[in-house]
Amino acid sequence: xxxxxxxxxxxxxxxxxxxxxxxxxxxxxxxxxxxxxxxxxxxxxxxxxxxxxxxxxxxxxxxxxxxxxxxxxxxxxxxxxxxxxxxxxxxxxxxxxxxxxxxxxxxxxxxxxxxxxxxxxxxxxxxxxxxxxxxxxxxxxxxxxxxxxxxxxxxxxxxxxxxxxxxxxxxxxxxxxxxxxxxxxxxxxxxxxxxxxxxxxxxxxxxxxxxxxxxxxxxxxxxxxxxxxxxxxxxxxxxxxxxxxxxxxxxxxxxxxxxxxxxxxxxxxxxxxxx
Length: 275
What we know:
This protein has 13 helices and 2 strands, in the order αββαααααααααααα. It is an all-alpha fold. It has a domain at 62-225: MetI-like (MetI-like fold).
C-alpha cells in the first residue's frame, strides 16, 4: 500500500513536467518530422534525396561532425589532467576551483564569443603577442576559419567535460591508485588501467554533452565562422531566414535531430555497465 502511494505521488509530481515537454518539445518535433516526409502528393522521401544530393549540404555536414569530434577530443585531453588535480584537492579548495569552472557557464555565450573577436582579430591580442615574440611578421587571419570555431566551442563546452570528469574522479578512492603503484605500475599504467576505466562513465557523459553541443551550436559558429565557414546550425538559419527555403531548412533540422540522437545512443553504449 505504501509503495503504491509513493508511485502515485511520483507520477503526480512529474506529470506537469511531462505535459510541458510533450507540448513544447515532442509535439513541435513530431510536426517537423511529419512535415519532412509529406507533401501535396502524400508521403515521400524525395525531399531528403533532393537536399542530400547538394554538395554544400554534404560538405557542411561532414565539417560539422569533424569539428565536433575535434572539440570533444581536445576537451577530453585538456579536461582529464585538470579534473584529476581538482578531484584530489581539499574540499574547500575544490569548491573554489569548481566555482571558477562554472563561472563561464554563467556568462552569456554571445558576450563570450564576441570577446574572441577582440582576442583573435587581425589587430587583436593574439596577433600582437605573436608578432612581439617574433613568431610571425604580419597578422594572420584566424577569425572566420575552422580554427576560430574550434577555439570558441572548446571554451564554451570544456566546463561541461570538467564537471563530469571531476564528478567521476571524486568517487575513485586514492587507495586504488596506491595499490596499483605498490604492484609496480607507473603513472601512465595507473592512468590507463585504473583511472581511465573507473572514470569512463564521466568521460562518455562529458563527451556526449560536448559533441552534441558542438554540432548543434549556433551563436559561436555564426560569429566566429560567419558565412565563410558554415555548420549545420548556421546553414539552417541561412536556408530559413535568408533564402526562405523552408523545405531545405526542415530537412536540415531533421538531420541535426537524428544525428544528435544517433550519436547520443552510440556513446551511451560505451558507458560501462558496472564498475
